[in-house]
Amino acid sequence: MVDHSLIDNLNLKARDFALKWKNMVRKAQQLKHYNTLDDETLIETNTAFYPVLSKTLDRGLDRSLMGGFFANLGKARMKDGYPISEVIYAVDLCQKIVVDYIITEFAPENPVRMYHSMGVVSKVSEFFLLGCFYITKGFLEAVYTQMNMNDSVSEELLKKYFKDDFFFKKE
């Protein structure tokens, strides 16, 4: 069971976490596309992660909630022209913010929290790793659709290179 004060803090401090994330993005030379955005857009972009993480830690792993959130994020990032490598790296920075908060600010308050925090960090890592899986799926699905509909690439050729089982396929 996850301490409810952590769950509450993920919601209440979402903007603070996003501000820290924005500062990390600004220092990351690899995130060229993200660094073209203004500060407020970056903060708004990241704020949505923390309530979804909070719900996941509170209620358990809900693949429907996570899958929908992250797959749609992957599709949106593809349509907005982000490289998938940047999207995954940006998610990794988000994970670092949360883990750092748990280890340095939340857990040290008492020994019991420190012990429970080890399990929470594992759950947080699982959340973000599974999130990257769904982001990639959503991103590739958007590429597939774009190439099929707008770029007139044949379904046959797409199936040759896109072997994933996308959400829209009924095979």
Task: Give me some keywords for this one.
171 residues, mainly alpha, Globin-like, 8 helices, 0% strand
Q: What do you see in this structure?
A:
There is one protein chain. The protein is an all-alpha fold and 171 residues long. 75% of the residues lie in helices and 0% in strands. It has 8 helices and no strands. The chain has helices at residues 4-12, 14-27, 39-47, 49-59, 63-79, 84-106, 111-149, 155-161.
Number of helices: 8
CATH topology-level name:
Globin-like
The proportion of strand residues reads: under 5%
The CATH superfamily label reads: Globins
What is the count of β-strands?
Answer: 0
Helix/strand order, N-terminal first: HHHHHHHH
Quick overview of this protein structure:
This protein is mostly helical and 171 residues long. 75% of the residues lie in helices and 0% in strands. Helix 1 packs antiparallel against helix 4 (49-59), helix 2 packs across helix 3 (39-47) and helix 5 (63-79) packs across helix 7.
Describe the secondary-structure layout.
Layout: H1 4-12, H2 14-27, H3 39-47, H4 49-59, H5 63-79, H6 84-106, H7 111-149, H8 155-161
